[in-house]
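Lay summary

Proteins are chains of building blocks that fold into shapes. Our project writes down both the chain and a compact code for its shape. Here are two examples, one after the other.
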Amino acid sequence: MSTPSTVLAFDLGASSGRAIVGRLDSETGRITIEEIHRFSNDPVQVGNHLHWDILRLLHELKQGILQTKHLGYSQIESLAIDSWAVDFGLLAANGELLGNPYHYRDHQTDGIMEKVISEVGREKLYALTGLQFLQFNSIFQLYALQKNNPDLLSRADTFLMIPDLLRYFLTGEKHSEFTNATTTQLLNATSLTWETSLLSQFGLPEQIFLPPVASGTRVGSLSTAVCEELDVPSIPVIAVGEHDTASAVVAVPALDEDFAFLSCGTWSLLGTETAKPVLTEQALAWNFTNEGGVYGTNRLLKNIMGLWLIQECKRTWEKEGKTASFAELVKQAEAVQPFQFFIDPDDDMFLNPAHMPKQIQQYCRDTGQTVPQTDGEIVRCILESLALKYRFILERTEQLSGKTYRGLHIVGGGIQNELLCQFTASAIQREVWAGPVEGSALGNLVVQWIALGYIANLREARKLIRNSFPVKTYHPEDGASWQAAYTAFCDVASRSTVK
């Protein structure tokens, strides 16, 4: 390879998306990236329902492709898309989209999880799928559709997750990618095929679910219509780890064979890689999830509410005329006296409240604590609580995996919050290795290069990432105070609606 290999990654998060060009230089053994397009991802409230603006996202993908041309990247060898999980679109037999995809925070699934569990049984559903019980999982969304809008499902010809759907719009080809399919709670954790007994039990049309394809599979090229519209060549499209967490874990620059990771963004996902799903009674009791990873790996992890808590507070304060940036809010939090109040970030009351700051205050009031009053106090409460929750989940991850981890790798945009990284190191009393920031996008890029034959395997990919991007180490501080805080946090969290 005399010139660097250049590929394009689209990384879509719950609040924003980005197009990133990656270049792999065989002579230096390094990866370089350039963000060429960034855009907001704003859900739209229509009546009583919250939807994704899927056609706007398609438009932004096209703008990203155009930017590669405008910036002189004429030799894009492939492109790929990763995004959040669980949400989907339905196509009619003529290939047209049946309605706008629902947002996972839409209230259509309120109370649905409990109904499904009562019909199937919690133990059976976990044994079949190995997935954490979250009210927005695809199975519960589909159940809600079947009850509330059966005509929509009756007209459906194809079920496609969000990256699958956007790929279809670009290529005209329909494929279901494996890592995202595992987040539906409809894929059998052992056979890795759709669990037809569940589809049958809930009257879901089996024929709309396509056999999952492995990450790293070529799944078409830009269609003639898209190429003519954008005046670009027909770029090959690859199915990477299309669940953004799967891609983020690919990018963990671990030196150890066994490692713990935290993908930190709107959601926090903490866990480890295992050779096969962990389907024990204890994993069920602790509500851990088993999600498919790339190249035969399994991700044993726990979903934690994450920086959504601060994002929603900021959004609410902006409505009230306050303009503090995230950095300014963190600075305010830094000045607050530590360990005055705690929340369990995963309490159901924080999933989609009308006013997040008031909800946090109400939680503290209900649990007999001092109630945070200022914006800085609320942010400090969130950050300390997240760090302590990470310790709680890390220790359970070790018990389930039978492994002990020297420290915690953190990837994703959340590492830009250095106070949270330091709090996490102190809470777990181990080193934290933070980096890279663009975890999901890098995982997307390197799987493309593996598929194209430039990188041999996952281990080599992680070495390349570590050699190409900085990793910052945080050391634990003030162990006694953090231990006392952890005891207090666990006492408060024991009163939560979610264990």
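And here is the second example, written the same way.
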Amino acid sequence: METMEAVHQTEFRHRRLSGRPLVIIPLTMAGEAGAPLAAMVGTAKRDMTLLVVPQPRNRDQRFTFAADLGQIVMRYIDSYRQDRRGDGERSHYSDAPQILVPNHGGIKALADLGRMCRFRSTSGPYAVPDAVPEFGMWLTFLVDTAEQAGTSMLLPVTTMLSEHWATGQSTLEDQNLASLMAWIAPPDGLSVAQALADAENPDICPPAGPATSPEFDNRHLAPAIKRFDAAHTLSDPHELATAQAELRDLVAEQVKPTWRMMWTAISLLRSVPEAPRTAKRFERDRVSFTSYSDYRDTGGFPQRKRDTAIGAAQRLSRLERALADFEADMAFDDPFVLADRRSAGEAFAGTVEESEPGRMFTTAKNRRVPRPYVTLRTDDPVRLAAGTKLISPSMPAGHKAVIASVHPDGDTTLVTVEVTGGMGRARTPNPGTVPEPGQHLAYLPDPGWRPTPVFPASDHTPWTHSPGPDEPDTDSAVPEDAAAEEWGHED
């Protein structure tokens, strides 16, 4: 804030950035969250499609818009369902789609659109085009993955930028793409202060969505919609075409600045090197994408409107584990993030003072295994207890340890760790696998493997967590496979 310059808070970009992302900028009317107004969508800066709903309160026009947008998005998703590798249960697609939106509000707009579409019928009264329910189910799947830390299939660009750059504004203000970009890369010839002033002026830089500016709605959009309604009522083809063109031009003026800004932000993010462990997390994205694709190919049900008690517990467990893994991966890969963890006492670094590479331990099966002791002196505050399992970015892959003791020593702390893994299979540790005196290294907690929690069946939950009389229990109707277990269905 003092220098009015954005600064790096990570050395790497910890999110995957696809070589061909699909950018979607959704717009809704201010005060009408369930009424989509428009969307600009495309995979390149000069290859975009603008879809507009002339009357957002008209049900038929909303679903025509959803069908058109759904066809574009499903073509993009299907382009990743071509190359499949591996055999049997390990088979998965070689790549996965990535959809980028300006901010968290864009994800909320897609969530509303998915909920509006996924339960619609394609036959009978109020039928919708075939693409609508399929599009709604895929949108809901992508929105659900966006809740999970470390995934990259649906991301707000503001999150990617604010993870790497720190600004002098609040976290809430960082959700404004224009003001965030003003800090990171102000336009040529403008200071950050001038760029911020322009970013907050809706006449110069319209909002990045999902809602339009109320002033724009009152001054321009509402009168243009009224003229369209009047032309539609009169059934005058010329007047109707003129009103539609006027609406389209109005919306284009609102969304094009954000479209250009999105691709500028993507170029900035491409200049940041990708963190090493991002590829491993992308493997999980591909498995999840493949699993849901197979689920849909077998006629899987739409996602529930609301989680059951068991479903909510399973979701919370997955999110908690994903967050712990993502935070550990970031600290392992990135010295900037590790420094942040060290300052909070959640990790430590120091110099090895003593090492016992020949220490052995007898297991319960009377087998002798190496368990070296290593003592480090650190200036960091250490708030980790004895017994905490550790990993180290300073040591070869596979190195694991556990804290044996922590003793304050004046202004420093002596931490003794027991090396438990990464030494090879022989009774003598391989060279370089046990830290030596004088070596500087860092440790952080190991999120480790833990079994998936076992939850009770839905008919064994207490009455306080059972479905009410107007909310039938449908767990028993869900097909018994991994995909159905994760996504469930609506009765």
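What can we say about the second shape? The chain has twelve helices and 17 strands.
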